[in-house]
Amino acid sequence: MSSSLTPEELEKKRAEIDSRPPEEPTAGDLAALAEADAEDPAATLSLEEYKAQREYSGKLALRIPKELHRYLAEAAKENGVSLNQYALYKLAK
Known about the structure:
Helix content is 61%, strand content 0%. With 93 residues, the chain is mainly α. The radius of gyration is 30 Å and the shape is elongated.
């Protein structure tokens, strides 16, 4: 159940909040602010950079013909590597 305030009640609440003394930062707040000030801006990521990092998980699922799958698996085995390593090698070429 929600109740809405009348304009008079809302103004009274605002006046109560405005009359309160300002809060002092805690030692933890001050330490966090100091740590943030000490950070190297070059070491931080922009929101766009952060989003770009999250977009690529490093996983790629492909559907390939069974014959190609068999060929790649056998070639990987002959080379003594996993199918994943072999496919990565072939893709990187």
